[in-house]
Specification:
The chain is an alpha/beta fold. The strands form 2 sheets. It has an 8-stranded mixed β-sheet. Helix 8 crosses helix 9. It is globular, with a radius of gyration of 19 Å. The structure holds zinc ion (2 copies). One zinc ion (ZN) binds next to loops.
């Protein structure tokens, strides 16, 4: 049956940053925008998130809800830009921020570090309202659930030691479902949450055996991320309609194509490596395209 609300249930996902702490103009650190009905949710706010939002034609004051998977710097570096520039763009209400323990300190310290700027901009001629700079902060935990306009966001704990608190998110409405793994090593929780889901956005870290043997630090880093064979195993277990590999960490210089080929040796399911500004419309037929640069 045709319905005028045929697009109402679409979950639109834009990868703003598909990278890691490594500095790369083409691959900013992690940030994912989710749009549902008229709501916008940001999952992590890595380096340059506001610039990528600008390339997606979204104003700094349009972001109202930010979820943090964990507090590694590559996931929060772009937060101050969104907080402060959104205020300069006359954001009319406080941000809603959801993050692990430590988030209150992080947000408060960020605001404190801009004390001089805030003092000046609160006075004429700008006369910005300091009340709009304050944030509603909610501390998340395993099984924390949030609902807004038919979209549910479920938090689940993942393994990203030595972090005590690191989370993934299951995001769904009555028709579609997706999971963001966050930074994690192989996680049964991710598998459990992704069962019967349409889209999995999972992190990937890659290093050859040779690199792992030669560089103990690489071995250490890989141990709290997910490698190609683990990712293949997860995909084969949960069989999502589409898997996007994000937070792309190549410790041995392998290209995206080489990493993807490695994974495709072990799975026949659809899998892509994320690029910045890749957009996915989650609907009956998943549609993937790229936001045009300005
Ligand atoms: Zn990270
Ligand atoms: Zn991390």
């Amino acid at each position: 049956m045709l319905s005028s609300n045929i697009y109402a249930d679409i979950i639109k996902v834009t990868i703003l940053g598909s990278g890691t702490p490594r500095v790369n103009i083409d691959r900013f650190s992690q940030s994912i925008l989710i749009e549902h009905k008229n709501d916008k949710f940001l999952f992590d706010a890595g380096r340059g998130a506001l610039l990528r939002l600008n390339q997606s034609r979204i104003l700094p004051n349009e972001i109202e809800n930010i979820f943090f998977t964990h507090l590694h710097s590559d996931h929060i570096l772009g937060f101050s830009d969104i907080l402060m520039t959104g205020w300069v763009y006359h954001r009319q209400k406080p941000l809603n921020i959801f993050g692990p323990p430590g988030t209150i300190n992080f947000v408060d310290s960020t605001i404190k570090s801009f004390e001089e700027d805030i003092k000046v901009r609160s006075l004429p001629p700008e006369s910005l309202n300091v009340e709009n700079l304050k944030s509603n902060i909610e501390i998340i935990y395993d099984d924390f659930t949030y609902n807004k306009n038919g979209l549910t966001i479920e938090t689940f704990a993942v393994k990203h030691e030595p972090f005590t608190y690191a989370f993934g998110f299951k995001i769904f409405n009555s028709k579609y479902c997706m999971v963001i793994s966050g930074d994690t090593t192989y996680s049964e929780q991710v598998i459990e949450k992704t069962k019967n889901c349409d889209l999995l956005i999972h992190e990937i870290a890659h290093a050859s055996e040779h690199t792992l043997e030669k560089y103990p630090k690489a071995k250490g880093v890989i141990s709290y991320h997910t490698n190609a064979s683990q990712v293949s195993k997860i995909i084969n277990t949960v069989k999502p309609r589409l898997t996007i590999l994000n937070h792309v960490l190549s410790l041995d210089g392998s290209s995206d194509e080489q990493i993807l080929n490695e994974i495709k040796k072990n799975t026949k399911h659809k899998v892509l490596i994320a690029k910045d500004l890749m957009t996915i419309d989650l609907k009956d037929e998943i549609y993937i395209y790229k936001q045009k640069n300005l």
